[in-house]
Write a structure and sequence with these properties.
This protein is an all-alpha fold. Helices cover 35% and strands 0% of the residues. The chain has two helices and no strands. 0% of the residues are buried.
Length: 71
C-alpha cells in the first residue's frame, strides 16, 4: 500500500474537506525496494513548510494529522 499513487487518496481528501478540514496530498519519491521513512517524513515536512507560505490559506499548522499506508 505504501507505493500507491496519491490519486488513490483523493476520496479521503474530499471526505475530510467536506467536513471543513484542509487536505493536502503529498507525492513521495519512494523506492519499492529501499523505502526511506526519513525521506518520506522530510517530504511531508517540506509540504507543510510550503503550505505555511501560502498566505491566502488560513491554516493552523500546529494542528496537523496524517494518514497513509504502511508496508
Amino acid at each position: 500500500g505504501f507505493s500507491l499513487p496519491t490519486s488513490q487518496f483523493v476520496g479521503y481528501a474530499q471526505r475530510l474537506a467536506s467536513h471543513g478540514f484542509a487536505a493536502c496530498l503529498v507525492a513521495y519519491n519512494v523506492s519499492f525496494f529501499a523505502p526511506s521513512h526519513a525521506n518520506a517524513a522530510n517530504e511531508v515536512r517540506d509540504a507543510l513548510d510550503w503550505l505555511s507560505t501560502q498566505t491566502d490559506l488560513p491554516l493552523d499548522l500546529t494542528r496537523v494529522g496524517t494518514l497513509g499506508h504502511s508496508l
